[in-house]
Design brief:
single chain; 250 residues; alpha/beta; Alpha/beta knot; Trp Operon Repressor, Chain A; 5-stranded parallel β-sheet; 35% helix; binds S-adenosylmethionine
Length: 250
């Protein structure tokens, strides 16, 4: 099945250009997803093709008018819901949301600019709002591309054989273990000996211990979300480091 993604933006060429490169470009060629770009300036009805106006109540900046956005959503054949506005006020986009979107037939992303959207565009035509973090970008295009790339690489056939999303960070609610490649020694730092041992079962346990230790240190919130460490996790950590009480970090 091909995932359909529509993007409403004032800069379709910026989104389209990135989406033809690398993983996204190959995934599109393989029919993993379709990308439909819409410039909502095309849905304006004045000679100047005006998409923004001054805010009621005064204040700095310009606000995106509701009608061109609503009209584009209403008049685009086959456009999929949910329609999701990119906004710093949205729910935070993360791996779980990416997984949720990757299970749909399609979805639509709405990119803002200036001060953002007339609230009525959101109230009348938008189903959800997502933010890619607690910072403010100039526009929603980069945020949309983050969402698209994170979702598409979860789809079957999106990645080649040498790439994998299965063992990556967040896949199992943990950060990923560290990677090493040749040469075995870099400026006096040697690759951990176990990775050259050929003992694949032990290497898998070591990697799991590294992922656990790194997550405990850097993202204890992720450990808490898993309900703390299981007895099995504690045993794997104990095999390679100091024992950890499974009741801790819960
Ligand atoms: N006035 C808005 C506010 O304070 O929340 C910021 C508007 S921002 C300059 C313009 C557009 O960039 C937004 O409408 C949104 O589409 C996009 N944007 C900015 N930061 C974002 C973020 N963290 N996540 C998702 N979209 C973002």
């Amino acid at each position: 099945m091909t995932l359909r993604i529509d993007v409403l933006t004032l800069f379709p060429e910026a989104v389209g250009q990135y989406a033809t490169t690398s993983v996204l470009g190959r995934a599109r060629e393989r029919g993993v997803f379709e990308l439909h770009l819409h410039d909502f300036r095309d849905a304006t009805d004045d000679p100047h093709r005006t998409v923004d106006d001054t805010p009621f109540g005064g204040g700095a900046g310009m606000v995106l008018r509701a009608e061109p956005i609503i009209r584009t959503i209403e008049e685009t054949p086959g456009l999929c819901r949910p329609v999701i506005a990119l906004s710093p006020s949205g729910r935070t986009f993360d791996h779980d949301v990416a997984r949720e979107l990757s299970g749909l037939d399609g979805f639509t992303l709405l990119c803002g600019r200036y001060e953002g959207f007339d609230q009525r565009a959101l109230d009348l035509a938008v189903d959800d709002e997502v933010s890619i973090g607690d910072f403010v970008l100039a526009g929603g295009e980069l945020a949309a591309l983050c969402v698209i790339e994170a979702v598409v690489r979860l789809l079957p056939g999106a990645l080649g054989n040498d790439e994998s999303s299965v063992e990556e960070s967040f896949g199992d609610g943990l950060l990923e273990y560290p990677h090493y490649t040749k040469p075995a020694s870099v400026r006096g730092l040697d690759v951990p000996e176990i990775l050259r041992s050929g003992d694949h079962a032990r290497i898998a346990r070591w990697r799991r211990a590294q992922a656990l230790a790194r997550t405990i240190e850097r993202r204890p919130d992720l450990i808490a979300r898993r309900g703390g460490l299981s007895a099995q996790d504690a045993a794997i950590l104990a095999e390679f480091a100091a024992p950890v009480d499974p009741r801790e970090n819960g």
